[in-house]
Backbone:
């Protein structure tokens, strides 16, 4: 049986394991020592996952934030700002309008640099220290570069980021720049940037911290752990469904791994696992295509376009991990138009929750699935909002109302308000 099956047995340590931790290929099952040398993929070319011979249960967690869950991570502590412990908003008006049993919004835009990427970087940059690498690098639609720049700065490591020229929201470039990353603006889209940075990494020029790096996904597992704990506390049960925007599908893969490990540890029943529901923009939807057509792989989309620049990705590298996650949990994937993304961004803002466009795709996708009758009115749903409103001030300003010019005196202002 595939190690990615929800019914896979808990693994036991191979000779390559160090202190009960190893890297394992999701295809051929080959095992590698975790920190002996820099490695992102298996010799066979497939993706790797971090494995543990001792999987924790709920009693093993204490403290707050990502490192509350150190028992589920390869280290006791990371390079921390600190991250995690994000808001779990109630959104009563949206809950009524969407018409589900309950709706919560997990706002990952409230992490230190304003996106969930921080959860990955606190573990990923700690791993870089363990390996003793000199330079960190990533390709990015923006948020990965902002997070890497900040965590690299914290660790005192040199950071290189490759961005698609003209396609990264202003707030994200500003962050990478001020935190001291060297920024290369590539004449190409995100997928081209990732191709190049993977080449650089394989030549030993830099340590790659895209979500291809299996250690990053370990940190991102903690989104799932936080949601499950908070939901159980508030409703006495786990959510039926988690809806999230999908770009490279790292988060989808990380959440699925979180659930799988809990099932293997006996901390959650198989039938309690939330349905993973991925949302993509219609102009960049290779995962939706693969789910709809029943394919085990995604087709690379060379032309991608959407207002949701964080998920403007045509070749999702984590698809081999994420597609089984969507299928095994009984979830689905759906594509949404940019105008419904913008409307969802406005409506979340109307509940006081400020998110960037990609994040709003989760609500837009939930609405579409409710319209199609694919999400029941008896479901408890959590939408993941991945990045903060201020990441993309231009999109926010365009979605909001225009400022009104008035004269510089009270009488003039009153006259304007009365008119
Ligand atoms: C990175 C990112 C995504 C996509 O996440 P994946 O793990 O690549 O699917 C979605 N939204 C925002 C705001 C992001 O920064
Ligand atoms: Zn392999």
Residues:
């Amino acid at each position: 049986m595939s190690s990615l099956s929800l019914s896979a047995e808990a693994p036991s340590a191979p000779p390559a394991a160090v202190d009960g931790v190893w890297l394992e290929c999701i295809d051929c099952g080959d095992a590698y020592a975790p920190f002996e040398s820099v490695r992102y993929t298996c010799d066979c070319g497939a993706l790797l996952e971090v494995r543990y011979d001792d999987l924790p249960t709920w009693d093993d967690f204490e403290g707050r934030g990502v490192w509350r869950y150190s028992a589920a991570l390869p280290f006791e502590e990371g390079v921390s700002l600190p991250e995690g412990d994000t808001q779990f908003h109630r959104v009563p008006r949206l809950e009524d309008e969407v018409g589900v049993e309950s709706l919560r919004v997990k706002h990952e835009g409230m992490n230190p640099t304003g996106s969930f990427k921080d959860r990955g970087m606190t573990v990923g940059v700690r791993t870089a220290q363990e390996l003793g690498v000199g330079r960190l690098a990533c390709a990015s639609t923006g948020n990965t570069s902002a997070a890497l720049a900040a965590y690299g700065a914290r660790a005192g490591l040199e950071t290189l980021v490759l961005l698609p020229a003209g396609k990264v929201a202003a707030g994200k470039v500003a962050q990478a720049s001020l935190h001291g990353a060297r920024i290369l603006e590539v004449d190409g889209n995100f997928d081209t940037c990732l191709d190049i940075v993977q080449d650089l990494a394989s030549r030993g020029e830099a340590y790659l911290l895209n979500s291809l790096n299996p250690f990053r996904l370990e940190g991102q597992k903690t989104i799932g752990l936080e949601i499950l704990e908070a939901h159980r506390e508030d409703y006495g049960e786990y959510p039926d469904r988690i809806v999230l925007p999908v770009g490279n599908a790292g988060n989808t893969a990380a959440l699925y791994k979180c659930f799988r490990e809990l099932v293997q540890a006996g901390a959650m029943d198989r039938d309690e696992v939330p349905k993973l529901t991925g949302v993509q923009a219609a102009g960049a939807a290779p995962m939706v295509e693969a789910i709809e057509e029943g394919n085990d792989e995604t087709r690379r989309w060379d032309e991608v376009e959407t207002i949701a620049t964080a998920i403007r990705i045509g070749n999702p590298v984590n698809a081999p991990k994420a597609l089984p996650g969507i299928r095994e949990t009984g979830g689905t994937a759906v594509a949404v138009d940019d105008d419904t993304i913008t409307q969802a961004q406005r409506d979340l803002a109307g509940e006081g929750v400020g998110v960037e466009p990609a994040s709003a795709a989760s609500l837009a996708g939930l609405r579409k699935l409710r319209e199609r009758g694919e999400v029941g009115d008896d479901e408890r749903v959590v939408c993941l909002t991945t990045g903060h409103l201020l990441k993309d001030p231009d999109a926010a300003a365009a979605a909001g109302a225009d400022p009104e010019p008035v004269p510089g005196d009270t009488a003039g202002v009153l006259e304007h308000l009365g008119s």
User: Anything to note?
Assistant: The longest helix spans residues 214-235. The longest strand covers residues 158-164.
